[in-house]
Amino acid sequence: MSVAIVDYGSGNLRSAAKALERAAADAKLALSIVVTPDPEAVRRADRIVLPGVGAFGDCRRGLEAIDGMIEALEEAVVSAGRPFLGICVGMQLMATAGLEHGRHPGFDWIPGEVVAMAPGDPALKVPHMGWNELVVTAPDHPVLQDFEPGSHVYFVHGYVFRPADPKFRLAEVDYGGAVTAAVGRGNVVGTQFHPEKSQAAGLRLLANFLRWNP
Q: Three-class SS of residue 197?
């Protein structure tokens, strides 16, 4: 089994790769993990991971700058139905649009918009940085199974995914109100938090993703 981590000039790629390697080893899974900017490698991969750090529009433009990458993602994920994991802005790009510094198109794989955070408590700072307790709202989803109550995960973000339909929200955290922490639909799943920085809880999610057969 091959896993392609998409390299488009954004994201903590080496940390993501090392965390996936650790999760695969812990789960005793034999697979090849490659960090690649090659659309053909993405198109051939059995699973795809899209990290993302920075502004929504910049990440979208980074993907568009690689000839054929958007098309390769569409073919592998939408047409072929390969399992896909988006991390942070990689998750946000699954939305219909992002409203950070203007309106930018997303992949529209999960209807909704990415909007600026507005915590109900004015004392809470934006961007949201640090550890928060994960509340799994879809415990039957294979990628979110077996999380211990009270599990904490690590966030760094100032914008939040608002799905058009709440059924696409798999997990949330409380940060001056409910904040989307994970989304999913069909063969795609995404986390606003960074599993590669979330220690045991993050490794559990990555192992679940590697075993997932949607």
A: helix
Residue 11's alpha-carbon distances to 7, 25, 29, 186, 211, in angstroms, are 8, 23, 25, 24, 23
The catalytic site residues sit at: 88, 194, 196
Q: Which domains does the chain have, with CATH numbers?
A: 2-211 (3.40.50.880)
pLDDT digits (tens, 9 = 90+) for 133-179: 999 999 999 999 988 888 999 999 999 999 999 999 999 999 999 99
Among 6, 33, 30, CA closest to 19: 33
What three-state secondary structure class fits 184?
A: strand
Whole-angstrom distance, CA of residue 6 vs CA of residue 48: 7
DSSP 154: E
Cα 111-115-118 angle, rounded to 5 deg: 135
- What would the DSSP string read from start to end of 60-95? HHHHHTSTTHHHHHIIIIIIS---EEEETHHHHTTS
Distance CA 167, CA 169 (A): 5
